[in-house]
Write a structure and sequence with these properties.
Layout: H1 2-24, H2 26-34, H3 37-48, H4 53-67, H5 71-84, H6 86-109
Helix pairs in contact: 1-2, 3-4, 5-6
Length: 116
């Protein structure tokens, strides 16, 4: 149980760090948020918990493919925010991400990559 609490605290600290830095600097906050810190932590947690190398490698592999269709959201958000407000923009971006993911999954399936 202590290990699980430690994982929660360390992972939450990363999110808090990003939001606190972003309050002070848009660029630095964006840079830190763009770093794959949560993925690196997940890889560390999997390794420390003695998961097989193939499982750790698969996590990194699928993370790459799942990140790609989320990128349009980061372009749509600043465009939609002044027009729609925060919550509608967040919802629209979530829908954009789902649509992009679905289309991307159909596209890469043709190359033997199964994301669904």
């Amino acid at each position: 149980m202590g290990w699980l609490v430690t994982k929660y605290l360390v992972t939450a600290a990363v999110v808090v760090l990003v939001s606190e830095v972003a309050k002070r600097s848009d660029r630095l906050g964006g840079l830190i948020a763009a770093l794959p810190l949560v993925t690196v932590l997940a890889l560390i947690w999997l390794y420390v918990e003695r998961q097989p190398q193939v499982k750790i490698a698969n996590h990194a592999w699928y993370t790459f493919w799942y990140v790609v269709p989320t990128l349009p959201m980061f372009l749509a958000f600043p465009v939609l925010l002044p027009r729609l407000g925060f919550w509608p923009t967040l919802l629209a971006c979530a829908l954009i991400t789902v649509a992009c993911f679905w289309l991307f999954a159909l596209l890469v399936r043709r190359f033997g990559i199964d994301l669904l």
